[in-house]
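S.,

Sequence below, as promised.
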Amino acid sequence: MRGEFFRIDPLAWKKACGLSHQAMTAYLILCRGTGVDHTTTGWSSNAIRDRAGMRHEAARSALRTLFDAELVQPEPNVSRSKPRYRLAQIGHGDDEFEPPWIWIPNTFVDGAGNETPPLKRLAQLGSHKTLATLVSLYGAHSLVECHGVDAGLLRCDVEARSLGTFGKWQSIAYEPRESVPKFNPHHSYSKYLPTVDDAELFEALELAYELGLGCWELILFRGDAETGEVIHPLTDQLILAAKEAVPDRHIDEFVLPFPRHELPALACVFRLHYLPSTRPTGEWLEQCKTQVRHWLDHYETIMEDVAIGRLHAETG
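The prediction came back faster than expected:
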């Protein structure tokens, strides 16, 4: 399908998460098999069997479970040899406050290249919570605004402290090793998640990280991480350039120069590994390149001023 992605109703997915792991997996596969309407599919138990690695009877049982839950219904007037199904759209109708669609990359079901697809790996592990959480978090994935899952919903805050000033700048030290995940159960998207239990959520994210399905990325925000705009991702190249721009060398791992009146927030944002081939994804990739180039030039300019003695460090 053009764009290489498919969509899921978040309320339908939350309902599927209350069923068996096999039924959840089957539902996701049927959603992957929809056409341009994202509602009807010609995929059936054979597709479920092949893509999930289930035995045929297990795939048929999962499909019956979805029928009983009224998440999937057979289309009328079609042959048994070529069935078609309609997926329930629980949260979407004429309400202007409809929940956001969850957009999933095809590679989550199909895999990339010759790898075992993520969905099949999770099916083999029987990791119900991780599958439920990852799919739900795609609905809160905001690459352009947060470089990952909305930081207002989920993040690790990093402690910051000022080390001193030089000219109009201050040296700010960050200590990410002390950060712990923080989940906001009052965020507007939290009601679409299958669980709001911190322990379950973080356990699912840990397994996703171990499987290479997501990672924590350091992102610098203006103001605060919950509502502030992104300044730039903290890449290795920018970490080195920023540290070189500070007059006095410090043992702190991350030291950044910023205007005296600013105290940017540094946070770890969870970014999902498999991304849909969409315009926002392309915009985000270009945005990353632009941000890194701009701030490399910025830090190098400060470093040059420090090197010629134009700026002097003051402690206090």
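The radius of gyration is 23 Å.

Coffee later?
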